[in-house]
User: Fold these one by one.
Assistant:
Number 1:
Amino acid sequence: MATIANSILQAHYRQAEQVGYLRPNLLTESGLHLDAVRMGTGRSDAGAFAKWLSTMWQENDDESGGFLPNPVKAGTFAMSMHAIISAGNLRRALLRSAQFYKLMDIGIQFDLTEQGEEATLSLRITGNDSADLRVFYDAMLVLWLRWSSWLIAQPLLLNRVHLPFASPDWSDEYPHMYHCHVFSQQTHCCAVLPSHYLSLPIVKTAKDLPEFLSNAPENLLVHYQQVNSVSALVLDLFSHQPNAIAADQNAVAEQLAISAATLRRQLSAEGQSFQTLKDQWRRKQAMHLLRMSDRSIHDISTQLGFSEPSAFSRAFKKWTGMNPGDIRQSQNS
């Protein structure tokens, strides 16, 4: 059974109470423990949470749950999915989604940019004056991540996430929500991913939409989670290896109790390769060390397996479109 921290439910509960959407009986009818949600303690069934949200949205004709200045009428998300399902690939789907929400003018703005081998999806939300938007930012990012994974029928593994606020009470959930480094108190909100995902074809069709939409938002809370993918397992192994740089495909396959051929086949089915994942892990580690440590660029390049700092700088420039020193300067400015 998939569960979710009640600190997240508490944030949604407080906003519903603030705007007059709250019907306490609805929580218990959905299978939630009212006192636990109010206190923000423990965990709840993700399906029960999804049922409460869905019913509250329908009763109040507002799919934002009261976080935005004007109600987002029921059916808006469904229409956005109909608008993007024929986009052809993920890049065009994201651009269509950004255009859709711009035309709707509901206080949600997406922007997609590409630099080097990375793509950045930026998110800006204009909420109610009284709204605590932290949980809504997280909800929108997770929603985007999981419907993108559904569209391409592959796990979408992020490089990093930037959040424009301090770590909230539910930040312990971030490893399960994003499966990447999360940087708080940033200037803006964005999710950064390898740009190769953008060219992947959309394999779902309009015939798949009715079932998908009939199960939303529960399917987006419970399913399409990257943690269950072989790619995510490999990245997780890299993160826990004392000498990840030296790990080869055979060693990783042995730790997963499968053959190297099986690992290669399963990664290929997810649109990945062992070397691509290793490079993605090095990119994540490089960004994390540059932002969160005072280690020299020489030390970082050595730790990440580069023969010299200049080779690391060239690779980093190719990955991100920036020099390692640019990251350090932005941290100190």
Number 2:
Amino acid sequence: MNKTPKILVVDDEVDNLTVLKIYLRDAQYEVESAKSSEEAWKMLISMKGKYDVALLDWMMPGRSGLELLHQMQKHWQFRHIQVIMQTAKARAEEIQQGIEAGAWYYLTKPFAEETLLSIVRTALSDRQNYLDMQQSIRDHTPGVSYGNRFAIRTLEEARNLAALLAKLCHDPEKMGLGFLEILLNAIEHGNLGISYEDKSRLLAEGTWKEEINHRLLLPENKDKFVEVYIDPHENGVSFLIKDQGNGFDWEQYLIFDPRRVTHTHGRGIAMAKHISFDHLEYRGFGNEVFINVDRKEADKSLEVTK
């Protein structure tokens, strides 16, 4: 992210607001604050969606943070602001409510400074992925005929292919991030064998990309590819994504477990299933993913050839 990230903090408790602003400004973020949802909404309107992250207190007098999030989701210019919900209890039913409203990040009170900053970094990273995906989608010209099989190895190839696949769908921005999450998972966890615990450590160290590039060069991985098959049919388009790993316990990642709310990763598959695709199915041991996009979602202007 080239510019200094801009964060909107909304909390009716003055002391909590002060602490949040100190921590975030010490981390070199640009911070603006509001003491109510009503004040925050006016700021959002005046800024025309220029915030990168909004940190919302769940419970406030008048309109709650969740109600503000619902209002934001009704306006396209605010939908891609990454929202962190601040709550005293990370109960499963609350998490589900928040997810359905569009919140995938949570800060549980009381919190430590490093916990706050790690969640903000995660949200900003996902925000950057969204911006990069937008650019990749714009860079691909629609109306081109594509073959039905692709093979990729690297993160850059995954990003480019995700953008291309998204172009076959009616809502490329929504589909693009879903494709990217599935392809990245196939590369890092499937082909390269990076475990959940490995990734937690690598992200904390800031060495995730370096480890990906290192493992890509290992002899045992040099011939491993993620294969993607496209099957256009009368009801839409289907995609089959296959990696060459040993699979994983995929069922636990189809939903966002409240126990992982403060983790810096582990929400991508659930986000893809919940936000991007109506039908996403892991097969076998988890090294095959089947995605179907209905005709109503498929972009009829594109021709896909076998």
